Amino acid sequence: MSMIYDMNLNPQKISKIPKMNPHESHTGASPANPLIPKRGIITKITTETPDVKTFSITGADGTKPFTPQPGQLGMLSLPPYGEAMFSVTAQNDTHIDMAIKAVGSLTNALHAVEEGQECGIRGPYGNGFPLDFCHGKDLIFIAGGIGHAPVRSLIRHCVEHRTDYGKLTVVYGARSYADLVFKDDLFDNWPKVDNMDIHVTIDRPEDGWQGHVGFVPSYPEELALPPSVSIVCGPPIMIKFALQALTKMGFKPNEVITTMEMRMKCGIGKCGRCNIGSCFVCLDGPVFTQEQLNAMPPEY
């Protein structure tokens, strides 16, 4: 695939990536090189928070570029800024959604593009959440900040297949009300779902907030949630203390599930960035149980 890019793009105003040559393939990655992305189009951009936007990405043929399982990821690229792995938060027949926080060169550039921008997309990567294991069980989702992004894909799956799962409990928090992502789901959509409880917290009091104030890791203990299958995602420090709290509350290590997306780079087990001992996060994860994490060397 041969494409020409303007190497002097201003991240504050990014022009669209040029169209592919009509004689080139629009089918996606070459079978000989899985690192070559498909051509994608950012068809919709939704502002979630001051520094998080959701990007809806459609393939060149007008359908979603791949079909991920809940918890799987995709590699999104924007030349000349690079590429990075992001969670898929939702999908339908025409597109996948990725919620992306502006934290660096690539993500800041993405936040500056407009709808219609072309991009590179490849995936899906990772093992996803264990749907068979979760089937029929009560599920507790614990997330902080942008960590809500990967968890949301599983929550949406459970809501769409409501009779396949037991009670659903969401415990989610962020630094402030403005930093809460997917507010429509949290305050409008999910509270209407049968046998589903939503608990939202922010770190510090603020004017107009009538809900809970406190940090996410300690909130499940305050709620006295009974041990069941728990899915945890957020900043590493939040995950660390949440896992400690769940252990204290009697949750079994094989029923506490978390993710380690931040260690992933190439997605296909070639670059070596994500290996922990003999484990490759991009191939064996990013979803792991606490039992699996406990068996890993302390380097993670």
Report on this structure:
This protein is an alpha/beta fold. The protein folds into two domains: 1-124, Translation factors (Elongation Factor Tu (Ef-tu), domain 3); 131-259, 3-Layer(aba) Sandwich (Rossmann fold), CATH 3.40.50.80. 19% of the residues lie in helices and 28% in strands. The chain contains eight helices and 16 strands. The strands form three sheets. A seven-stranded antiparallel β-sheet has the order 4-3-7-1-2-6-5. A seven-stranded mixed β-sheet has the order 11-10-9-8-12-13-16, with helices on both faces. Strands 14-15 form a two-stranded antiparallel ribbon. Helix 4 links the parallel strand 9 and strand 10 (196-202). The protein is globular. Mean pLDDT is 89; it is low at 1-30.
Keywords:
Elongation Factor Tu (Ef-tu), domain 3, 7-stranded mixed β-sheet, 300 residues, 8 helices, 7-stranded antiparallel β-sheet, 16 strands, 19% helix, disordered N terminus, 2 domains
Helix content: 10-25%
What is the fold-level CATH name, i.e. the topology of the largest domain? Rossmann fold
Global Rg? 20 Å
What's the mean pLDDT score?
89
Helix count equals 8
CATH architecture of the largest domain: 3-Layer(aba) Sandwich
Residues in β-strands, percent: 25-35%
User: Unreliable stretches, pLDDT < 50, 5 or more residues?
Assistant: 1-30
User: How many structural domains?
Assistant: 2
**Helix-strand category:** alpha/beta
Question: Rough shape?
Answer: globular
The CATH homologous superfamily name of the largest domain equals Nucleotide-binding domain of ferredoxin-NADP reductase (FNR) module
- What is the strand tally? 16
Give the H and E element order: EEEEEEHEHEHEHEEHEHEEEHEH
- The end-to-end distance, rounded to whole angstroms, is 37 Å
- Per CATH, the class of the largest domain reads Alpha Beta
Q: Write out the strand line-up for the largest beta sheet, numbering strands in chain order.
A: 4-3-7-1-2-6-5
Q: Biggest sheet, open or closed, and with what strands and sense? A: 7 strands, antiparallel
